[in-house]
Write a structure and sequence with these properties.
Blueprint (H helix, E strand, L loop, with lengths): L1 H19 L10 E6 L5 E5 L12 H11 L5 E3 L2 H4 L13 E3 H10 L3 H12 L2 H14 L22 H11 L3 H8 L2 E5 L6 E5 L18 E9 L3 E10 L2 E10 L2 H18 L1 E6 L6 E6 L5 E6 L3 E5 L8 E6 L3 E3 L7 E9 L2 E10 L9 H17 L5
Parallel strand pairs: 11-15
Antiparallel strand pairs: 1-2, 1-9, 3-4, 5-6, 7-8, 8-9, 10-13, 11-12, 12-17, 14-16, 16-17
């Protein structure tokens, strides 16, 4: 009887393990990737480096560049080129005047292509120059397999990206509070500045909704951007946050309008079942000390600029995480508060996986103190006799 009970218990444990283990999603999209939003750690990918048209996911890059260049109240006049752009939802008339705030909502919520052209012209003067800005920003973010020609994602021969590059862009965009607010909004009233006229923009991202009209609602969904053209198929940059974990899913060339949402939901479910966030350090507690030469004091306290949490996947353990501090032994005054002095490098199983800037906790003005003078003298001796360096 005892053997039977033990066998039954063993089988039950196997069943529990099988149920709790996340199974990789089967999706219709030809290319996709799922990442943890704060670190970019890849949780799932499928042909993530394949070159494909990104359709209106392009507008993420247009929006973030404009947010960094324009004030929300900046008036923008709709040009003839913007008004007559294909698939312009609001049927602009040349000469219409809108705020950047309202045009950005029109572009990001209902994917108005003319609004994207008008925003590009407001920032750079014309679309080609804005495209150059898009490509420059993309390179800054590490997107080397992308090239942008239009601000809206309408088909163009040399307009392409990858799921991995789209994830990099989405991660960067979601660090901006104004961008986050736009893409989580379900509805917004759009006002004309030069006429007594208004209209409603309703977000095309069905994951955001939880009412009777929603077919693909998703708990914790907070963005980001839909996309569709015949060439690109169903595209979606989707984000969701649950219990302190935020994930970003990129879907490219899904079968149709609906399957892109279903694909994203499957990926997000897999991610939330697979990821466990673990705190590596608290920015308010971890500190190191660096010597200061020619300062009013001899040392400066240094700490991380932000908390560091790392996503562990199934089967991974915290004991393989290691933290290394890359800091100079001595710096010259003056030192500004929050000045970056080095980096904390996190490794998992010997491989670097995250970096966080280390910044000065206090200001150390240039000046005289006996202790700081002694630091300089001792360092000079160390350099002369032992060849010591500042790092």
């Amino acid at each position: 009887m005892r053997k039977i009970l033990l066998s039954a218990l063993f089988m039950l444990m196997l069943m529990i393990e099988t149920v709790s283990a996340a199974v990789e999603p089967v999706i219709s999209a030809d290319a996709a990737i799922l990442v943890e939003a704060s670190t970019g750690r890849v949780i799932f990918e499928k042909n993530a480096d394949d070159i494909r048209p990104p359709a209106s996911m392009t507008k993420m890059l247009t929006s973030i560049i404009a947010l960094e260049w324009l004030d929300p109240d900046t008036p923008i006049t709709i040009s003839q080129a913007a008004a007559y752009t294909e698939d312009t939802t609001f049927y602009w008339t040349p000469g219409d005047v809108m705020s950047f705030h309202d045009l950005n909502y029109a572009m990001m919520l209902v994917s108005d292509n003319g609004a994207a052209v008008a925003i590009a012209q407001a920032v750079a003067g014309n679309v080609p120059d804005f495209a150059a800005m898009m490509n420059e920003k993309a390179r800054e973010l590490g997107c080397y397999d992308s090239n942008f020609v239009t601000p809206n994602g309408l088909p163009a021969a040399d307009h392409y990206s990858t799921a991995r590059d789209m994830a990099r862009i989405a991660m960067y965009c979601m660090q901006n509070p104004e961008f986050r607010e736009v893409v989580r909004t379900k509805k917004e009233i759009i006002h004309w500045l030069n006429a007594d006229k208004k209209d409603e923009a309703e977000n095309t991202n069905e994951l955001l909704y939880n009412d009777e009209k929603a077919h693909f609602t998703y708990e914790g969904a907070n963005g980001i951007k839909t996309g569709w053209t015949s060439a690109a198929g169903g595209c979606l940059a989707a984000s969701a946050q649950r219990n302190g974990t935020e994930l970003i899913a990129i879907v490219m060339h899904s079968a149709n309008h609906d399957t892109r949402f279903d694909d994203a939901r499957k990926m997000l479910d897999y991610g939330f079942d697979s990821v466990q966030m673990t705190q590596v350090f608290d920015k308010d507690r971890i500190e190191r000390t660096v010597f200061v030469e020619d300062g009013r004091q001899a040392t400066v306290q240094v700490g991380p600029s932000e908390d560091l949490n790392f996503p562990l996947l199934a089967g991974e353990t915290r004991d393989k995480l290691r933290l290394r501090y890359e800091l100079p032994k001595i710096v010259k005054a003056s030192v500004k508060r929050d000045q970056i002095l080095g980096e904390a490098v996190l490794s998992y199983d010997g491989k670097p996986v995250a970096r966080v800037p280390l910044t000065a906790r206090e200001e150390v003005p240039r000046g005289f103190s006996v202790s700081s003078m002694l630091v300089g003298m001792m360092w000079s001796v160390a350099q002369n006799f032992f060849g010591a360096t500042l790092v």
